[in-house]
Design goal:
The complex is a heterodimer of chains A (218) and B (322). Chain A is an alpha+beta fold and 218 residues long. Chain A is built from 6 helices and 5 strands. Chain B is mainly α and 322 residues long. Chain B has 2 domains: 55 residues, no CATH class; 260 residues, no CATH class. Classes of the chains: A alpha+beta (218), B mainly alpha (322).
Chain lengths: 218, 322
Amino acid sequence: MQIQYKPKRTWLATIFQVEILQGMALTLRRLFSKPITRQYPEEKPRIKTGFRGQHALVRDPQTDLTKFVGCMRCAMVCPSRCIRIRSHKAKEPGSPRLIDDYRIDALRCVYCGYCEEVCPVNAIVLTEVFEYAAYDRQSIFFNMEQLLTNWDRFAAQMDQPVADYVNPFWRPRGLAEHTLPVGKRIPVTPEWSGEQQVVGRLWRQHQTGQADKGEIDV
Amino acid sequence: MHIVILLAEIIVLFALVMLHVAYATYFERKIIGHMQVRLGPMRVGWHGLLQPIADGIKSFFKEDIIPSGADRPTFVAAPIICLVAMLTSLAVLPFAKGWVLADINIGLLFIFAMSSLASYGVVLAGWASNSKFSFLGGLRSMAQVISYEIAMGLSLVGVMLLSGSLNLSRIVEAQGNSILGMYLLPQCLGFFVFFISMLAETNRVPFDLPEAETELVSGYCTEYSGMRYAIFFMAEYIGMMVMASIGTICFLGGWNGPFAVPFFPPLWFILKIYLFLFLFIWIRATLPRYRYDQLMDLGWKLLIPLALGNLVLTACLKAILG
């Protein structure tokens, strides 16, 4: 392996401290560059697809209740164990499972999005809402009513019809169509599913490639 | 009557300098912010213009804590020593022709004395706080003062030789009002040494070892809070201003400029001071801190021989040419 050292300083460079002067020139150039600060409450950040924010339970337009079926997968998969579910079933055979309560402790949540990925009926979603700080803990321990209200609030500020909303996490990535439950065979944007999915370094290359073609202004 | 006028002048100068100190912090935060591609203070007032006032009010109403193990009288006295020493040296600065509170003949010497006295405040603060961080900060300050005062004094002896005076107004007059008259060119070595020791004297980056916040929390002022802490900062900023004035007076031709300003003679002086302050801030935004032994090396092995060489050279040239 060849190690490339910096060339040794000449005596002239030592006397005039060229490296310090280079540094000073750099900071001076930065002084006249445009700051990247976003003045937050006035200027909101642009939320990109796949943002994982406040939790919500999707309100089913038919029943006006949650789509939740009580399969408990979300509670099982949750790495921080912040989902608590209580449900019961009536004695008669064939009766549906009834949900007593569904709680999410948002203070413990790590926003991994596993719950929405695993849910077979797309009942739970991490919405794009991120401003929900509160002064008391009680309003961040979401119970079922709060989670439904969260959805209503999110739906109210959506610019498309609620029925058309698809969270990209509802379709787990890298799985073949036939392996998915029926509810999860939904179309998402191509870059989120399978082969075209680009993340990290590939995403940046993808972006600059598109910028070169003039399709996206970065 | 004379005393009343003098008092009024002192009050005006004090108020202006305090205003300057307040806005120097703003200036610094803004410039460093933009150099780091941030915005700096933006919230209080238009573009954060009232930020220094908000800071001042805040530090007035903060709780004043004195650690129980601290040496109380020394702890209380230390910031005051710093501030008083720095404020006193303002008295001999000539802001323009005749715009000086005390036109004494040992002006330069007086300023040296006062700036060394100010570092006593730092040392005492480190000693009195009964905290390891403060103590180390105080020790470092002491070592730093010893290594830099000498180089600084020697670097200015060249200026004394050329002008033949210690009186600051006369030093300015000796330089005349042309660019060539400035001592910056004949004393470029002296200016180099002076500039570096000026950074060390005012405890600024890259020589901010006494309050190295990455190693010593806040160095000598770790245990200080509220107004006393603010006083240390006032002293630091006034110190910067005094040192910038000395640099302006001794090397950049003081209040002389390309043309005389009719109603506000100190304009050039103030512009030059702000040039120095910008340099201070610019350096702070760029350079990392020197290591302790590197600082000693630089002081004893480079700056003092350089200053001595400059002194001998100046004296010889003056004897041959003049």
